[in-house]
UniProtKB/TrEMBL annotation:
<feature type="binding site">
    <location>
        <position position="182"/>
    </location>
    <ligand>
        <name>molybdate</name>
    </ligand>
</feature>
<feature type="binding site">
    <location>
        <position position="100"/>
    </location>
    <ligand>
        <name>molybdate</name>
    </ligand>
</feature>
<keyword id="KW-0479">Metal-binding</keyword>
<feature type="region of interest" description="Disordered">
    <location>
        <begin position="30"/>
        <end position="61"/>
    </location>
</feature>
<comment type="similarity">
    <text>Belongs to the bacterial solute-binding protein ModA family.</text>
</comment>
<dbReference type="InterPro" id="IPR041879">
    <property type="entry name" value="YvgL-like_PBP2"/>
</dbReference>
<dbReference type="Pfam" id="PF13531">
    <property type="entry name" value="SBP_bac_11"/>
</dbReference>
<keyword id="KW-0500">Molybdenum</keyword>
<dbReference type="InterPro" id="IPR050682">
    <property type="entry name" value="ModA/WtpA"/>
</dbReference>
<feature type="binding site">
    <location>
        <position position="227"/>
    </location>
    <ligand>
        <name>molybdate</name>
    </ligand>
</feature>
<dbReference type="GO" id="GO:0046872">
    <property type="term" value="F:metal ion binding"/>
</dbReference>
<feature type="binding site">
    <location>
        <position position="72"/>
    </location>
    <ligand>
        <name>molybdate</name>
    </ligand>
</feature>
<feature type="binding site">
    <location>
        <position position="209"/>
    </location>
    <ligand>
        <name>molybdate</name>
    </ligand>
</feature>
<keyword id="KW-0732">Signal</keyword>
<dbReference type="InterPro" id="IPR005950">
    <property type="entry name" value="ModA"/>
</dbReference>
<dbReference type="GO" id="GO:1901359">
    <property type="term" value="F:tungstate binding"/>
</dbReference>
<protein>
    <submittedName>
        <fullName>Molybdenum ABC transporter substrate-binding protein</fullName>
    </submittedName>
</protein>
Length: 293
């Protein structure tokens, strides 16, 4: 009897040991639980738990535009650029002013330029033909007139083209016809009036229209062919007369974006701004006229 009781107690003890060991074995195993979408996103994206700021954008980096522009646009463009830069703080506008023909050659030779503003259609057309200007972003922006100016102390000595033949008119300044549109227009007008050959001994040529104006301002020329807009910038000369517009082709100022620009978005912003009423009003203030659309 006693032996049976002992045997039962031993058997019970063994069963309990087995049960305990079995429980410990199951407790050591980990369940394979699929990760939740939230835990997956947090692991894949650093700082995923930090909410993003609504509407946040990367700050725009500063950009410098190079604008090759006819010398006759100097004063108007400098004023216009101030308003443009105030509205576009990350864009700074640098100008390369000169004769349109010279600027055309610079662009053809790979000189850096983002926009070209010419004082003659032929210079723009040359670049369009060579596919250096984007034809979809080129437009005639302005018109101008050709005038003859004289020093203030010359009185009314010159009132017509024929008066340029007078002996007292010793020097007549014009821009180099091959590269300065104003000089080319002057040559056209003088040829049409039959005066070009007879005035050759009197002419002195300037590298751009502003130099022609300076010749007259300083008394180094008795008369000079410039744009009306240039004449209005000086208080040292007077407009003797306006040249008959039927003697030369219309003076147009086309503008276009250079295909090689590295700042196409900013170049287009300035291109579009030049066509706004705000900018065109400044051009009109300086004597330019706006083409009829």
């Amino acid at each position: 009897m006693i032996n049976k009781i002992k045997f039962s107690m031993v058997l019970l003890f063994v069963v309990m040991i087995i049960a305990v060991l079995s429980g410990c074995g199951n407790g050591g195993k980990k369940e394979n639980v699929a990760p939740t979408a939230a835990s997956t996103d947090s692991a894949a994206v650093p700082n995923a738990g930090t909410p993003a700021k609504a509407g946040s954008e990367e700050p725009q980096s500063d950009v410098e535009l190079t604008i090759s522009a006819a010398a006759s646009l100097t004063d108007a463009l400098k004023e216009i650029s101030q308003s443009f830069e105030a509205q576009h703080p990350h864009i700074h506008v640098n100008f390369n002013f000169g004769a349109s023909g010279m600027l055309q050659q610079q662009i053809e030779q790979g000189a850096p330029a983002d926009l070209f503003l010419s004082a003659a259609s032929k210079n723009m057309q040359a670049l369009l033909d060579k596919q250096l200007i984007d034809s979809s972003q080129e437009v005639n922006l302005l018109n101008n007139d050709l005038v003859v100016v004289t020093p203030l102390d010359k009185g009314d000595m010159v009132q017509t083209l024929d008066d340029l033949k007078k002996p007292e008119v010793k020097t007549v300044a014009i821009g180099i016809p091959e590269s300065v549109p104003a000089g080319n227009y002057a040559q056209e007008a003088l040829q049409a009036a039959g005066l070009w050959d007879s005035l050759q001994s009197k002419t002195v040529q300037g590298k751009d229209v502003r130099q022609v104006l300076q010749y007259v301002e300083t008394g180094n020329a008795d008369a000079g062919f410039v744009y009306k807009t240039d004449a209005l910038t000086s208080d040292q000369v007077k407009v003797a007369f306006s040249v008959d517009s039927s003697l030369y082709k219309a003076i147009e100022y086309p503008i276009g974006i250079v295909k090689a620009t590295k700042h196409s978005r900013e170049a287009e912003a300035f291109y579009q701004y030049l066509q706004t009423k705000e900018a065109l009003d400044v051009f009109v203030k300086y004597g330019f006229t706006i083409p009829q659309k």
